[in-house]
Amino acid sequence: MNSELGPKIGEGNGSDVYAWGSNKVIKLAKPNTNLYAIQREYENHCLVWEKGLSVPQPFEIKEIDGRLGILYERIKGESLLGRYVNQAMSGPVSDEERMRNIRTNACITAEWLYGVHQHSCLKLPSQREIMKFVIGRADCITVHEKDAVLALLERLPVKQQLCHGDPNPGNIMIRNGRIFAIDWLNAAIGNPEADIAEYIITMKYAELPAYLPGESANYINGLREASVEHFVHEYSSLSGITFEEINSWIAPVAACKLSADIGAEERARLLHDIRTRL
């Protein structure tokens, strides 16, 4: 065991995150994450770091006790997901404070994502080609439904902007009011509307952590629609992209998420949304 390896401080679908010394973390792959994915995430992260985006500094790929991982700068703050959870568990709040929290979280997220989308000309894969591949391997929709979703995707305009690919609240770290984005595995060049659609779908349908008490879960569930509404309003004000333009991307992005490691309830919600739109 390496002497610098500290306690486990986080976990995702494909990795465990451990402290590394006093100011770094190492993201160690689980068995479901292969070498290609690790190398791709590291290379993507290096690209956005070199472009000057607000991300933790990447250092190197390391092997620890037979597990490959990526060494990063440690951001000592809270994730947006953690902020929602902490606000939910802090006790009853007034309607005024609840709306203030919603607006604050929506504003900082919209401003961050809009900033990401101002970049282009990075050596990253095509968002559209990735989406076609992922939709094609989804096993819970019919061939006819896949063809219909792919036809929708083909009709959408093509853009060439940097997209994060997985802008969910767990990948948005906040330190002293500044956002640092993590997990650039799915970064691509394409349409900002797809990133926005991904965020909307996550906010509306993602299952909450199982440890949340019922009252706290009810609090967060009660924020979903208002959070989406304020976020879309803020992003649209910054970018000029309309809700109608974003809405056109919901079905293709939702179809992509069917191939992810998600729960049965979330999968059912996505399927219902897709089929309603076809």
UniProtKB/TrEMBL annotation:
GO terms for molecular function: transferase activity. Keywords: Transferase. The keyword Repeat does not apply. Residues 149-219 form the Aminoglycoside phosphotransferase domain. InterPro entries: Aminoglycoside_PTrfase, Kinase-like_dom_sf. This is Aminoglycoside phosphotransferase.
